Amino acid sequence: MPRIFDRFQTDTRFRRNLIDWITRSDYRDAREQSYIWHRKFVFRGNPFNRVSAHAAKKCELPEGRTWNPAMSSHRTCWFETLSTEEREVEILGASAAPGISRHHWGTDFDLFSLNPRNFVDGARMNDEYQWLAKHGVHWGYSQAYIGGHQDHGYMEERWHWSYVPIAAALQEHVRANEAHFAAALNAQWDSFESRWGSKHPEDRRFFNFIRENWRPFMFHVNQGFSK
Ligand SMILES: [Zn+2]
């Protein structure tokens, strides 16, 4: 271990490779986040997220399966049964809306893997996770999404870590200037909607739900150091 630390200090190439290997994502701007949101909303590309209990019941689909744009039963549910607001809620289970993601702040990182199965007891990233859960605090890191919130849909993310001394200050700043940020977020969502709406006039409303409900997604995040 000390040898790795020594090398980490002195060998920039080694350091970069190690950080690349550990970090699945770090800084991501709102435009990049908007591509993720749009792709899921128009239901294209690779499977994503999970079918929620609500959607499963409404569409008579098995709960917890990955949403798959290639499956006709999933397409029918997505486009014909779910409202646009319900589609947003499905996306929000695993993706933040552009403007809301903590990855915009430069303080938040996804480490090792984005698959929850890799972090459970006995799985290949569990040791790393347990180490971070115990020692991350000494370097100011905390797991942002611990699951179980009543008022927003983010699931537990054992890979998503925040550097709290800066992230907590940024969050306090948003809270202290909430009206200003609400106006800026709405203006940003307007501009994405008008860009996308020109191509898909029938799908003009991409952000109805999050406009009314962004606050818990922004504020109800674990910033304490206890899990
Ligand atoms: Zn993340």
TrEMBL record:
A Pfam family annotated for this UniProt entry = VanY
Q: Which GO terms describe its biological process?
A: proteolysis
Q: Which Gene3D superfamilies match?
A: 3.30.1380.10
Provide any one GO MF term from the record: peptidase activity
Residue span(s) of domain D-alanyl-D-alanine carboxypeptidase-like core: 19-165
Q: What is the top-level taxon of the source organism? A: Bacteria
Q: What is this protein called?
A: M15 family metallopeptidase
Organism listed in the record: Microvenator marinus
Lineage at the top is: Bacteria, Deltaproteobacteria, Bradymonadales, Microvenatoraceae, Microvenator
